[in-house]
Automatic annotation (TrEMBL):
Official protein name in the record: V-type proton ATPase subunit a
Role description: Essential component of the vacuolar proton pump (V-ATPase), a multimeric enzyme that catalyzes the translocation of protons across the membranes. Required for assembly and activity of the V-ATPase.
GO cellular component: plasma membrane; proton-transporting V-type ATPase, V0 domain; vacuolar proton-transporting V-type ATPase complex
Localization (cell): Membrane
GO molecular function: ATPase binding; proton-transporting ATPase activity, rotational mechanism
Main location: membrane
Membrane topology note: Multi-pass membrane protein
Record keywords: Hydrogen ion transport, Ion transport, Membrane, Transmembrane, Transmembrane helix, Transport
Family note: Belongs to the V-ATPase 116 kDa subunit family.
Keyword Ion transport appears in the UniProt entry: yes
UniProt record, GO biological process: vacuolar acidification
Pfam families registered for this protein in UniProt: V_ATPase_I (PF01496)
Annotated organism of origin: Tenebrio molitor
């Protein structure tokens, strides 16, 4: 990624230069020697500046790619940690709460199991819905913000203008006035 494009440009320019040099007539080379040497020096200078620009752009692109990869990995690790926390909370609720209701023998055990089951199911569903909802939200946010913005977004759109009723009404009044002026002009 770092050297692919610059090396390709160097190779293609060298090849183009060799083909051009072989195709030239010997008489033209002798008669235009001074002019050619001056032009080739400027062309080489311009090409080296262009190649240095390409190298700089490739270095920046490579660094952006590496940082993006690290950022994507960290984003996935956050989602993994959230899933792990959900799993551990479910395990704690099972082992600490529902198993508590299973310890009572006899008739009281059934009542205790019913009560602990209600508490366990409430907390389990609450944690499941909240944690999974948060996980889905974070995953969607990561997909939209981190991946979409780092791959496709260039920021060359329209300037952001916050929503304002005042501006909408002013534009409507202006448009209405323009329409009335157009109608008066048409009547004349």
């Amino acid at each position: 990624m770092l050297l692919g494009k610059p090396l390709y440009l160097i190779y293609s320019r060298k090849r183009h230069f060799d083909v051009t040099k072989n195709a030239e007539d010997v008489n033209q080379e002798i008669s235009l020697k001074f002019e050619k040497s001056t032009k080739s020096e400027t062309v080489v200078k311009d090409e080296s500046e262009t190649l240095s620009d390409v190298f700089i752009i490739q270095v920046i692109s490579t660094m952006e790619y590496a940082l993006g990869t690290i950022s994507h990995t960290a984003s996935y690790l956050r989602l993994w940690a959230l899933s792990l926390a959900h799993s551990e909370l479910s395990e704690v609720l099972w082992s600490r709460l529902l198993c508590l209701g299973l310890r009572f023998p006899g008739y009281w055990g059934g009542i205790a199991l019913f009560i602990t089951f209600l508490i366990w199911s409430f907390f389990t569903l609450t944690i499941l819905v909240v944690m999974e909802g948060l996980s889905a939200f974070l995953h969607t946010l990561r997909l939209h913000w981190v991946e979409f913005m780092s791959k496709f977004y260039t920021g060359r759109g329209y300037r952001f203008e916050p929503f304002s009723f005042k501006e909408i009404l002013e534009h409507k009044e202006k448009d209405d006035e323009d329409e009335e002026d157009d109608k008066q002009d048409d009547e004349k």
